[in-house]
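Narrative of activities, Objective 1.

The group set out to show that a structural description can be obtained from nothing but a protein's sequence at a throughput compatible with the screening campaign. Below is one input-output pair from the validation batch, recorded exactly as produced.
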Amino acid sequence: MRSPIAVPVCERLDELPVGARAVVRAVRGDAGTLGPDHLRRLGELGFLPGEPVQLLRCGPGGREPLAVQIGDTLFALRRAEARAIEVERTAEQATA
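Output recorded for this entry:
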């Protein structure tokens, strides 16, 4: 009998729990949410495939802004921006 193949599960950055670490897989905009200029700007900020990212905290009541670290830089993102970033969780979790 063959063992099942593990397929990485991608989710959006806005779906991660606080403290979770992940790797960026893609930056994609939903129809009408973010334009190509905005998506390009996210790439210029460092949200590129293969980059490690961590969701540090959310705003009051779990809302905006989302504090996200990519590399050594901390960014405040709106939910619409975080929703456009597809990530894959890593096994390494924060020790906060």
